[in-house]
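Changelog-adjacent note: as of this version, every example in the card shows the full chain rather than a window. The one below runs 218 residues end to end.
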Amino acid sequence: RNAEELSSYQKKIIGIDDHLGIAIAGLASDGRVLLNFMKQQALASKMTYGRPIPLERIVNQVGERAQTNTQHYGKRPYGVGLLVAGVDDAGPHLFEFVPSGLTQEMFACAIGGRSQMARTYLERHLEEFADSSREELITHGLRALKESMAQDKELTIENTSIGVVGTVMEGPRKGRVDPFKLFDGPEIGPLLEAAQEGQQEGEEATAEPAGEQMDVDS
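Full-length structure tokens:
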């Protein structure tokens, strides 16, 4: 969302390395500090060990850095929450980071203003995610995001971005990391249309049995 009507929308999904990216909620300036720290750690891992940094390691490093600020006089906690998504040798991961330094791995998560509505949607459809394709997961993400918006707001190409990272599912590169990709601007238009069409079809299918039941009762 934008801070005011005259301002543009802030970019809150950022790639860290080919195998991971983050979404931020809170103070963007604090988010940039942690973003730069994570980029440094990712680069150091490649230079020292010759491989991408594992997700759990980099998330723990961020958590330790944030928690240290709560122990020193004159410092304050970082006023930002993070979602860290990526793939490593152990598979795909999604971690949540909160300003206190607490980190935890999640199956699905939403952070930021009005995020509880999005969490409710994710909890309701959690069992579907394991068997969903990448396109279906994107649709679920957009629908969850729509749930968190005010009634007079809509998802548009101006206020929506999508970050995707995973593994290649077929072909000669099957099983390898499919690099983090940010969908923004006009690229996101077809994805928004697909999510909206699917939601309308679901609402119509739900409404039809209700109408039949009302006829029977009358």
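Structural remarks: The chain is about 40% helix and 20% strand.
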